[in-house]
Amino acid sequence: MNIAKLWLFFLAFALSGCTVAPKKDLSAFNAASPRSILVVPAVNKSLDVEAPNYLLSTLAVPLAEKGFYVFPVNTAKFILEQEGFYEGEQIHQQPPESLAKLFGADAVLYVTIVRWDAQYALISTTVTVQFEYRIVGKDGAELWRTTQVMQYSPQSNSSGSLMANLLVAAVNAAVTRAAPNYLPLTQQANQMVFILGPNAIPNGPYKKATQ
Q1: Which of 110, 135, 136, 208 is the most exposed place for a label (fewest CB within 10 A)?
Q2: Phi-psi region of 193 (alpha: psi -120 to 50; beta: other; left: phi over 0)
Q3: Vertex 109, ends 5 and 185: CA angle to 5°?
Q4: Residue 105 carries which DSSP code?
Q5: pLDDT, tens digit, 9 for 90 and up, residues 69-101
Q6: How far is CA 133 from the centre of its chain?
Q7: C-alpha to C-alpha distance for 59 and 129, rounded to whole angstroms
Q8: SS3 state at 159
Q9: Which domains does the chain have, with CATH numbers?
């Protein structure tokens, strides 16, 4: 693990505020040994209609870094729309065997957006993302499943003046509430579940050996 990924791991762990999850059984994933993964649009349980598009743009990179061929997400989304599948809920209801066969994929990644929000309380704003991840093989068998929650609250540097600190905190909270940046948290969540976390998926066949 290089220094950048090690730093990201500790940052993500601190932001999540969660205890280490128990190891899960990865025997089904190892037995299936998928080489290619189809990423389908997410089910969105949040109020932000753009959340699925932002999430979709972040999923391919960590899977590719893990050593899997990932079908181009925008191309896959377009093909699914040509087949009449426009919404994540509709796509998730289709048999995974049919979706995998349509693209020739070994497995399908399903993600559900449980939370994607910024909660404001006096002089603080907490940005939260929560995702449920599931990988299903081309035969319909579930290979892997996990959940990840990430949170962030902007912090201000202390100036020594209580009033000044409160004012800066209030401004930071207001700015974050007006335009919360979900992408860093989303990328950190993906890094945790696919690469750095205790239940990360095994390496794919195209994983390059680290020096």
Answers
A1: 208
A2: alpha
A3: 40
A4: -
A5: 999 999 999 999 999 999 999 999 999 999 999
A6: 8
A7: 14
A8: coil
A9: 16-196 (3.40.50.10610)
Which structure tokens are listed for 187? 């990328």
Structure tokens at 186: 């989303």
User: Using one digit for the tens of pLDDT, what is the confidence trace for 157-191?
Assistant: 545 554 444 344 444 444 444 446 888 999 999 99
At residue 199, what are phi and psi to the nearest 5 degrees? -115, 30
Containing 109, the helix (H) or strand (E) segment is strand 107-121
Helix (H, G, I), strand (E, B) or coil at 112: strand
Token output for 96? 């995974």
End-to-end CA distance of the chain: 9
Exposed, middle or buried by CB within 10 Å (0-12, 13-18, 19+), for 85?
buried
The count of C-alpha atoms lying within 13 angstroms of the C-alpha of 174, restricted to the half-sphere facing its C-beta, is: 6
Q: What is the C-alpha separation between 87 and 80, in angstroms, rounded?
A: 10
The first and second tokens of residue 131, run together, are: 């995702």
Rounded to two decimals, the pTM is 0.79
